[in-house]
From TrEMBL:
InterPro entries (alphabetical): AAA+_ATPase, AAA_lid_NorR, CheY-like_superfamily, Homeodomain-like_sf, HTH_Fis, P-loop_NTPase, Sig_transdc_resp-reg_receiver, Sigma_54_int
Higher taxonomy: Bacteria, Pseudomonadati, Bacteroidota, Cytophagia, Cytophagales
Domain Response regulatory: 1-114
Record's keyword annotation contains ATP-binding: yes
Name assigned to this protein: DNA-binding response regulator
SMART domains attached to this UniProt entry: AAA, REC
Annotated organism of origin: Spirosoma pollinicola
Keywords, ordered alphabetically: ATP-binding, DNA-binding, Nucleotide-binding, Phosphoprotein, Transcription, Transcription regulation
Key word GTP-binding present: no
Residue positions, PTM 4-aspartylphosphate: 50
Domain of life, source organism: Bacteria
GO biological process assignments: phosphorelay signal transduction system; regulation of DNA-templated transcription
Gene3D superfamilies: 1.10.8.60, 3.40.50.2300, Homeodomain-like (1.10.10.60), P-loop containing nucleotide triphosphate hydrolases (3.40.50.300)
Length: 672
């Protein structure tokens, strides 16, 4: 026991009584200074404390320190006025003995206080355990961080009171603030920056620019003058203090993992809210809270990664469906070898690549080769066709949107740029991108960050960009359809793919390659391509380039009997347009027309493309029917030649308006 009493006789009396009753006394102090000195040498279990002492500090001042040190104390004092008693109560003594006292009363109070203290310590330990469990539950609950932290704040309120709680989460350069204003017993209002902006008539930009101020290195409490200084250093807190009439603060900085920091600021309207016991409770909770936050962040990361994996997986499944035919790039012509050289040079850098070339020259194949040779090959390559997406959807497709950002945006959606994080994005048909979106793409290229539609903060992205077009981009720029600044950004490293007619030497190789591939697919033997057919292929101008060659060969394999070399389904006729406009990029927006129709018949929209497809198919089926003399079923019938089920062929014929005739002397005339 330590006795702190300035009246010598009473102090002596106390010592005698205590020693006789078996309580060892470590010393008697008559002032706060002396008491602290004695406690420095030996820590007492209990302090008996008078209110008025020698010197200017009172027993109440000493009590505040004892509370911080976790040493229980009992006041021994003459009855005093109400305000002193209020202050005494606030220090949470374990007992109070009124002077003058009888020996028996003193010992009884001492006995009861000790028992109750021991009990309360046990209770406190249990309470703290329960508090830790409740905090863990709050932080591991599902929901947003805003909801989790609010739950945690509600749990803490009973132990560390606040009128306003501000939590700052910093991860590298990203800072998020969560603000909760207590409006009722168990009622809290989440205060967003926009709310603060309205309450304080500041702009969001001004708010974002407010210096967060220095964060203390450990737990710190601010009241009176220290709170004023804290506000001066921390303009955000100052604004909160003025708006919500706050007078004291308790700040708890937490380093979580290698990059995350949390700073929890409890703020109160009362000037003396935060006591040593709040500090020591938070000190004890610090490690458990760090662990809880670490776990919550790890769960978040796992959820994010598995979501990303799910998205990548869906995307890849789609990719496999559309690109199962990709095997290798065929060709040995010097023009193509030059392209390979460029691909190797640029692949290992993060430079933006612009691939130019007529339709069907293999631009996508080259984009894939660049990606596969780059350090990003382990990550995803996301392809976007700017021509096939409706203009209204491109922005959301590329950048994503927040829930409710426009009519129909029922769910948050991640854009292709976010999906491609760490990998490559391939913007095919970039020449078709609407002008307003070009400005946004330019921003991504310059700032390396994107903004979801309806989003408030930009998101950093690490994506390599590749683009391709069959348009004359310079012409598009000159005519005001393409932004010049974007063009120069994209064209950092242009790769120009030669048209097929510029590398006729590759035609036999490609033809053999496609023939083998088609034969494998159709399960037919391949008996080679005759010299006549090869020279016909070489002499054709291939306006549709490799894609057209692939189609022509596939058709030839379909009608081939598997015994003789390939024959073409129909003669290849060079049309006027293709023959008079040779050279790369020479037909900027023309579709190919292998039927020698005038250029005005080129497809303008998907309807046209469908019609041409149907005409081709119809013509093709008619040619096969002619060959089988109208016979559909059985060995050597059209269905077998076309590798289709007879019922499927009949269905297709009906769709295409080809009437079944028993003997097809003139199949075309049957329905014309
Ligand atoms: N050198 C090559 N070797 C083998 N196949 C090729 C080669 N070049 C292109 N192809 C094939 O030709 C077809 C068309 O190629 P791709 O889609 O890459 O052309 P593109 O220039 O991107 O066409 P578009 O401009 O119409 O989008 C694909 O099936 C592709 O696999």
């Amino acid at each position: 026991m330590l006795i702190v009493e300035d009246e010598y006789i009473i102090a002596n009396d106390l010592e005698l009584i205590l020693q006789e009753a078996g309580y060892p006394v470590i010393g008697i102090a008559d002032s706060m200074t002396e008491a602290l000195m004695l406690m420095d040498q030996q820590k007492p279990d209990i302090v008996l404390l008078d209110i008025y002492l020698k010197g200017k500090e009172t027993g109440i001042d000493l009590a505040k320190q004892l509370e911080g040190m976790g040493i229980p104390f009992i006041y021994i004092s003459a009855n005093d006025n109400r305000s002193v008693l209020e202050a005494v109560k606030a220090t949470q003594p374990i007992g109070y003995i009124v002077k003058p006292f009888r020996e028996q009363d003193l010992l009884t109070v001492l006995e009861i206080s000790r028992y109750r203290y021991a009990h309360s310590v046990e209770m406190k330990l249990r309470e703290e355990k329960a508090l830790q469990i409740a905090l863990t539950d709050a932080l591991s609950a599902s929901g947003s961080w805003e909801q989790k932290l609010l739950k945690a704040a509600m749990v803490l309120q009973a132990h560390v009171p606040f009128d306003f709680l501000s939590i700052q989460h910093r991860k590298g350069n990203d800072v998020h603030r969560f603000n909760y204003y207590r409006v009722g017993f168990e009622e809290y209002q989440t205060i967003s920056l926009v709310d603060i902006q309205q309450m304080t008539s500041t702009t969001v930009d001004q708010l974002l620019q407010l210096e967060p101020g220095p964060i203390p290195t450990g737990l710190e409490r601010y009241d009176g003058d220290t709170f004023a200084t804290f506000c001066k250093q921390n303009r955000f807190v100052q604004m909160l203090a003025t708006t919500f009439r706050l007078e004291s603060a308790l700040v708890m900085p937490l380093g979580v993992g290698p990059v995350d920091t949390f700073c929890i600021t409890f703020l109160s309207r009362k000037g003396d809210s935060y006591l040593s016991r709040h500090l020591s409770l938070l000190e004890r909770l610090e490690q458990p809270i760090v662990l809880m936050l670490e776990r919550a962040l790890a769960f978040d990361e796992v959820a994010r990664l598995s979501e990303q994996l799910k998205r990548e997986n869906n995307y890849l499944q789609e990719e496999v469906k559309t690109l199962a035919n990709f095997e290798e790039i065929i060709g040995r012509s010097p023009r193509l070898l030059r392209v390979f050289e460029q691909v190797t040079q640029v692949a290992t850098t993060d430079t933006t690549v612009l691939i130019l070339g007529e339709s069907g020259t293999g631009k996508e194949l080259i984009a894939r080769a660049v990606h596969n040779l780059s350090a990003r090959k382990g990550k995803i390559l996301v392809k976007i066709n700017c021509a096939t997406l409706p203009a209204a959807l491109i922005e959301s497709e590329l950048f994503g949107h927040e829930k409710g950002s426009f009519t129909g945006a029922f769910e948050k959606r991640i854009g292709k740029f976010e999906l491609a994080h760490g990998g490559t994005i391939f913007l095919d048909e970039i020449g078709e991108m609407p002008l307003e979106l070009q400005a946004k793409l330019l921003r991504v290229l310059q700032e390396k960050e994107i903004e979801r539609i309806g989003g408030k903060t930009p998101i950093k992205t690490d994506v390599r960009i590749m683009a391709a077009t069959n348009r004359h981009l310079e012409k598009e720029v000159a005519e005001g359809r393409f932004r010049m600044d974007l063009y120069y950004r994209l064209a950092t490293f242009p790769i120009l793919l030669p048209s097929l007619r510029e590398r006729p030497g590759d035609i036999p190789l490609l033809a053999q390659f496609f023939a083998r591939k088609a034969a494998r697919k159709l399960g037919k033997p391949f008996r080679g391509i005759s010299e006549t057919v090869l020279s016909e292929l070489i002499n054709y101008t291939w306006p549709g380039n490799i894609r057209e060659l692939e189609n022509v060969i596939e058709q030839a394999v379909i009608i081939n009997d598997g015994q003789s070399p390939l024959r073409l389904g129909r003669p290849l006729e060079n049309n006027f347009f293709a023959m008079t406009t040779p050279g790369p990029m020479s037909q900027p927006d023309a579709g190919f027309n292998r039927y020698g129709q005038p250029a005005s018949a080129k497809p303008r929209d998907m309807g046209d493309v469908k019609q041409i497809q149907q005409e081709t198919e119809r013509e093709y089926i008619l040619a096969v029917l002619k060959q089988t003399n109208g016979r559909i079923r059985g060995t050597g019938g059209a269905a077998e030649l076309l590798n289709l089920k007879p019922t499927t062929l009949e269905y297709r014929m009906e769709k295409l308006g080809i009437r079944k005739v028993l003997s097809m002397q003139s199949p075309t005339s049957s329905n014309d």
